[in-house]
Amino acid sequence: MSSYQKELEKYRDIDEDEILRTLSPEELEQLDCELQEMDPEAGLRQRDQTKKSPTGPLDRDALLQYLEQQALEVKERDDLVPFTGEKKGKPFIEPKREIPAEEQITLEPELEEALSHATDAEMCDIAAILGMYTLMSNKQYYDAICSGEICNTEGISSVVQPDKYKPVPDEPPNPTNIEEMLKRVRSNDKELEEVNLNNIQDIPIPVLSDLCEAMKTNTYVRSFSLVATKSGDPIANAVADMLRENRSLQSLNIESNFISSTGLMAVLKAVRENATLTELRVDNQRQWPGDAVEMEMATVLEQCPSIVRFGYHFTQQGPRARAAHAMTRNNELRRQQKKR
């Protein structure tokens, strides 16, 4: 280390702010002058304007009115080249292209006359017969080749127009009464085999937790669906606790919710302790669960032969291949059991 560097080392831990706080106004002014001498442009960029005495109390409305008046009184700058409206140059005219002799097509007089009087719909059918399907929409093409007469009168001019389809009405809201459903689950109603709360997004968390608690002892419900109910990890943990005790549920659907990887892992671990579940759907959560959860999914499918339907789109090739192999094996085992 050079002597100059050693000299700088003693200034490494100096607190500049503390030094500035101890300087007097005269010393600060002197420091400002020194800085301007070191960098003359710094004085222009950071010019001190705090020493002016106030002209009066601040009146914001009067200040804005003054600035607006000043802007209106400023004379507009004249253009360097005045605009006169004169158009310069020549307009572009596309040159006519002469068709080479080898590209010119001569038709028989009868065919030429027939084509000159053909309508757009007839031209569309002719194009379909000749295999020129790029000149028409798919609907026009199939209408032309599947019918002996012209059944699409839109013509070639409709190629750039989309086909009109009947609007599909939105699904009606879920009419399930939550409180009534909870009572039926608690009373173990033998006529209740499906609990469908899909798309009901204002269900309180305590109500869903109570429903999962009631499902622990229910022996008749076969399908339990909570799609798009804004359920998070607390509900996932409640579902996991329910799976450890319930012995009649066959289908569980918790897709399109806000369950994280922690909640999904809890559900998957509980599935290992349930031997009656045959269908599990957990796809389309708010965030991707991660590689560890996908590997756990594949492991669960390998260790739970009762599951024959699984709803999740794998992003990694390894767990996807393992899950596909496990599902094939599980379905084959189920088929053999039915044959017996």
TrEMBL record:
Its main location: cytoplasm. It comes from Apodemus speciosus. The keyword Membrane does not apply. Keywords: Cytoplasm, Cytoskeleton. This is Tropomodulin-4. InterPro entries: LRR_dom_sf, TMOD. It holds the Pfam family Tropomodulin. Residues 42-51, 331-340 have a biased composition (Basic and acidic residues). It is found in: Cytoplasm, Cytoskeleton. Residues 34-60, 321-340 are annotated as: Disordered. It comes from the Eukaryota.
